[in-house]
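Please, structure for the following, as tokens.
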Amino acid sequence: METAIAIMTGVFFATAFYLMLSRHIIRILLGVAILGNAVNLTIFTTGRITREVPPIIPDHAAMPEVAIANPLPQALVLTAIVISFSFFAFLLVLVFRSYQELGTDDTDEMRDAEPRDEPAPPLGY
């Protein structure tokens, strides 16, 4: 099971990097979202996917008697999901407003700061 999850995580990372190298802002945004999911899956996999006993210590024991599930990666993933969703929502609004203002989603055409008609800045000092 963990091998299949590791392969799927690798596919997520490869897809995310491929999409983030695109010229179109929408593809970059989807790549960032997939990258967040790949990182969450990686963190979740470190806590072992196999079925374990819940992390409850009996009253008569000072420590668990058997192997227990690790709750820390699950808590980290829950926090990471909230952070990645809020980051995705912020980027979605940013992309929408830039498309409204500039009229394109191609990063090569978004040249308000550096228009094509102006001369290049000096290259030497």
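The chain has three helices and no strands. Residues 55 and 71 are 7 Å apart (CA to CA).
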